[in-house]
Amino acid sequence: MRIAFRIRTNAPTQYIVMPATGFLSANGSINILITNLNMRKYRRRHRFIIQAMKAKENDTDRRKIWNDANMENLDLVQCIRIFTLKANRQRSDKSISKEEFDELAIPSSSEAGESETTSLQVQLMTDEEKSTKINELNKQINNKLDEKRKECENLLEAVNEVKKLETDLDRATIQCNDLNKKIILDEDQQKIIKEKLAKMDAILDTMKIK
Protein backbone atom coordinates (compact mmCIF):
# COMPACT_ATOMS: atom_id res chain seq x y z
CA MET A 1 0.00 0.00 0.00
CA ARG A 2 1.21 3.52 -0.80
CA ILE A 3 0.36 6.49 1.44
CA ALA A 4 0.64 10.27 1.28
CA PHE A 5 1.67 12.08 4.46
CA ARG A 6 2.02 15.62 5.70
CA ILE A 7 3.13 17.20 8.98
CA ARG A 8 1.41 20.30 10.37
CA THR A 9 1.99 22.43 13.47
CA ASN A 10 0.12 25.10 15.38
CA ALA A 11 3.29 27.24 15.28
CA PRO A 12 4.23 27.31 11.58
CA THR A 13 6.50 30.36 11.92
CA GLN A 14 8.44 28.78 14.79
CA TYR A 15 9.42 25.46 13.20
CA ILE A 16 10.87 24.24 9.90
CA VAL A 17 9.83 20.70 8.92
CA MET A 18 11.79 18.97 6.13
CA PRO A 19 10.14 17.38 4.29
CA ALA A 20 6.66 18.45 5.36
CA THR A 21 4.86 16.35 2.72
CA GLY A 22 5.61 13.24 0.71
CA PHE A 23 4.76 9.66 -0.18
CA LEU A 24 5.68 6.34 1.45
CA SER A 25 5.45 2.82 0.07
CA ALA A 26 4.86 -0.32 2.12
CA ASN A 27 7.64 -0.94 4.68
CA GLY A 28 9.28 2.34 3.62
CA SER A 29 10.76 4.91 5.99
CA ILE A 30 11.86 8.54 5.85
CA ASN A 31 13.83 10.85 8.13
CA ILE A 32 12.04 14.06 9.16
CA LEU A 33 14.05 17.05 10.40
CA ILE A 34 12.19 19.49 12.69
CA THR A 35 14.09 22.69 13.52
CA ASN A 36 13.06 25.20 16.20
CA LEU A 37 14.13 28.63 14.94
CA ASN A 38 14.15 30.24 18.38
CA MET A 39 14.05 28.27 21.65
CA ARG A 40 13.20 31.47 23.53
CA LYS A 41 9.79 31.42 21.87
CA TYR A 42 9.12 27.77 22.70
CA ARG A 43 5.74 27.08 24.35
CA ARG A 44 4.48 23.80 25.77
CA ARG A 45 1.27 24.23 23.79
CA HIS A 46 3.22 23.73 20.56
CA ARG A 47 1.88 20.64 18.82
CA PHE A 48 2.51 18.64 15.66
CA ILE A 49 0.06 16.47 13.78
CA ILE A 50 0.96 13.79 11.24
CA GLN A 51 -1.76 13.13 8.66
CA ALA A 52 -1.71 10.13 6.34
CA MET A 53 -4.07 8.67 3.75
CA LYS A 54 -3.97 6.14 0.92
CA ALA A 55 -2.38 7.30 -2.33
CA LYS A 56 -2.55 5.89 -5.83
CA GLU A 57 0.56 4.80 -7.71
CA ASN A 58 0.06 7.59 -10.26
CA ASP A 59 -0.18 10.31 -7.58
CA THR A 60 3.02 12.39 -7.86
CA ASP A 61 2.12 15.89 -6.67
CA ARG A 62 2.75 15.96 -2.91
CA ARG A 63 0.74 19.13 -2.36
CA LYS A 64 -2.11 18.77 -4.83
CA ILE A 65 -3.26 15.49 -3.29
CA TRP A 66 -4.09 17.31 -0.04
CA ASN A 67 -6.24 19.85 -1.87
CA ASP A 68 -8.63 17.07 -2.86
CA ALA A 69 -12.02 17.05 -1.14
CA ASN A 70 -11.38 13.53 0.21
CA MET A 71 -8.79 14.78 2.69
CA GLU A 72 -11.59 16.48 4.65
CA ASN A 73 -13.11 13.05 5.30
CA LEU A 74 -11.70 11.88 8.64
CA ASP A 75 -12.64 8.30 7.76
CA LEU A 76 -10.01 8.41 5.01
CA VAL A 77 -7.34 10.48 6.79
CA GLN A 78 -5.47 9.13 9.81
CA CYS A 79 -4.17 11.76 12.27
CA ILE A 80 -1.47 11.32 14.93
CA ARG A 81 -0.79 14.12 17.44
CA ILE A 82 2.71 14.75 18.80
CA PHE A 83 3.30 16.77 21.97
CA THR A 84 6.52 18.69 22.66
CA LEU A 85 8.59 18.93 25.84
CA LYS A 86 11.46 21.26 26.66
CA ALA A 87 14.71 19.49 27.63
CA ASN A 88 15.68 19.91 31.31
CA ARG A 89 18.93 21.76 31.86
CA GLN A 90 21.62 19.88 33.78
CA ARG A 91 22.95 21.57 36.90
CA SER A 92 26.48 21.25 38.29
CA ASP A 93 26.77 19.35 41.58
CA LYS A 94 29.84 21.37 42.64
CA SER A 95 29.26 23.66 45.60
CA ILE A 96 31.53 26.71 45.80
CA SER A 97 32.06 28.88 48.82
CA LYS A 98 30.32 32.25 48.60
CA GLU A 99 33.37 33.93 50.14
CA GLU A 100 35.62 32.64 47.33
CA PHE A 101 33.55 32.61 44.15
CA ASP A 102 30.59 34.07 42.41
CA GLU A 103 29.27 31.63 39.77
CA LEU A 104 27.70 32.75 36.50
CA ALA A 105 25.87 30.02 34.51
CA ILE A 106 25.36 30.52 30.78
CA PRO A 107 23.24 27.84 29.01
CA SER A 108 24.67 26.53 25.75
CA SER A 109 22.63 25.41 22.75
CA SER A 110 20.98 21.98 23.07
CA GLU A 111 21.47 19.23 20.49
CA ALA A 112 19.75 15.82 20.02
CA GLY A 113 17.54 16.34 23.07
CA GLU A 114 20.51 16.99 25.40
CA SER A 115 21.40 20.24 27.15
CA GLU A 116 24.42 21.29 29.09
CA THR A 117 25.43 24.26 31.23
CA THR A 118 28.79 25.94 30.94
CA SER A 119 29.81 27.42 34.25
CA LEU A 120 32.11 30.43 34.54
CA GLN A 121 33.68 30.74 37.96
CA VAL A 122 34.94 34.19 38.83
CA GLN A 123 36.66 35.44 41.96
CA LEU A 124 34.94 38.17 43.90
CA MET A 125 35.61 41.46 42.18
CA THR A 126 35.10 45.11 42.77
CA ASP A 127 32.00 46.77 41.33
CA GLU A 128 34.06 48.20 38.46
CA GLU A 129 35.60 44.81 37.64
CA LYS A 130 32.18 43.17 37.81
CA SER A 131 30.75 45.79 35.47
CA THR A 132 33.61 45.19 33.02
CA LYS A 133 33.09 41.43 33.20
CA ILE A 134 29.34 41.78 32.69
CA ASN A 135 29.94 43.95 29.62
CA GLU A 136 32.32 41.32 28.25
CA LEU A 137 29.76 38.58 28.86
CA ASN A 138 27.02 40.64 27.24
CA LYS A 139 29.29 41.15 24.23
CA GLN A 140 29.91 37.39 24.03
CA ILE A 141 26.19 36.70 24.28
CA ASN A 142 25.42 39.26 21.56
CA ASN A 143 28.07 37.67 19.33
CA LYS A 144 26.51 34.26 19.91
CA LEU A 145 23.07 35.65 19.11
CA ASP A 146 24.42 37.19 15.90
CA GLU A 147 25.91 33.82 14.95
CA LYS A 148 22.57 32.13 15.64
CA ARG A 149 20.73 34.70 13.55
CA LYS A 150 23.14 34.14 10.67
CA GLU A 151 22.70 30.38 11.03
CA CYS A 152 18.91 30.83 10.91
CA GLU A 153 19.20 33.02 7.81
CA ASN A 154 21.44 30.44 6.11
CA LEU A 155 19.03 27.69 7.12
CA LEU A 156 16.06 29.61 5.70
CA GLU A 157 17.96 30.15 2.45
CA ALA A 158 18.71 26.43 2.31
CA VAL A 159 15.05 25.60 2.98
CA ASN A 160 13.91 27.94 0.21
CA GLU A 161 16.41 26.34 -2.15
CA VAL A 162 15.15 22.87 -1.21
CA LYS A 163 11.55 23.96 -1.81
CA LYS A 164 12.56 25.36 -5.21
CA LEU A 165 14.28 22.08 -6.08
CA GLU A 166 11.19 20.15 -4.93
CA THR A 167 9.01 22.30 -7.20
CA ASP A 168 11.38 21.74 -10.13
CA LEU A 169 11.39 18.01 -9.40
CA ASP A 170 7.58 17.87 -9.33
CA ARG A 171 7.44 19.80 -12.62
CA ALA A 172 10.01 17.46 -14.20
CA THR A 173 8.03 14.43 -13.00
CA ILE A 174 4.84 15.76 -14.61
CA GLN A 175 6.70 16.48 -17.87
CA CYS A 176 8.21 12.98 -17.81
CA ASN A 177 4.77 11.42 -17.31
CA ASP A 178 3.36 13.47 -20.22
CA LEU A 179 6.28 12.39 -22.41
CA ASN A 180 5.73 8.73 -21.51
CA LYS A 181 2.05 9.04 -22.44
CA LYS A 182 3.01 10.60 -25.78
CA ILE A 183 5.50 7.80 -26.49
CA ILE A 184 2.87 5.16 -25.71
CA LEU A 185 0.38 6.94 -27.99
CA ASP A 186 2.95 7.11 -30.82
CA GLU A 187 3.71 3.40 -30.39
CA ASP A 188 0.01 2.56 -30.59
CA GLN A 189 -0.36 4.64 -33.74
CA GLN A 190 2.68 2.95 -35.32
CA LYS A 191 1.20 -0.43 -34.48
CA ILE A 192 -2.09 0.49 -36.17
CA ILE A 193 -0.22 1.74 -39.27
CA LYS A 194 1.79 -1.49 -39.45
CA GLU A 195 -1.39 -3.55 -39.23
CA LYS A 196 -2.98 -1.53 -42.05
CA LEU A 197 0.14 -1.93 -44.22
CA ALA A 198 0.11 -5.67 -43.59
CA LYS A 199 -3.53 -5.86 -44.71
CA MET A 200 -2.76 -3.84 -47.84
CA ASP A 201 0.18 -6.13 -48.66
CA ALA A 202 -2.08 -9.14 -48.26
CA ILE A 203 -4.68 -7.61 -50.61
CA LEU A 204 -1.99 -6.81 -53.19
CA ASP A 205 -0.63 -10.35 -52.99
CA THR A 206 -4.14 -11.71 -53.56
CA MET A 207 -4.61 -9.47 -56.59
CA LYS A 208 -1.27 -10.60 -58.06
CA ILE A 209 -2.27 -14.26 -57.76
CA LYS A 210 -5.51 -13.62 -59.66
Automatic annotation (TrEMBL):
GO terms for cellular component: endoplasmic reticulum membrane; plasma membrane. Residues 108-119 have a biased composition (Low complexity). Residues 1-84 form the MSP domain. Residues 131-182 form a coiled coil. Pfam families: Motile_Sperm. It comes from the Eukaryota. One of its GO terms (molecular function) is FFAT motif binding. InterPro entries: Ig-like_fold, MSP_dom, PapD-like_sf, VAP. The chain crosses the membrane at residues 15-37. SUPFAM superfamilies: PapD-like. Belongs to the VAMP-associated protein (VAP) (TC 9.B.17) family. Central component in molecular interactions underlying sperm crawling. Forms an extensive filament system that extends from sperm villipoda, along the leading edge of the pseudopod. This is Major sperm protein. It comes from Brugia timori.
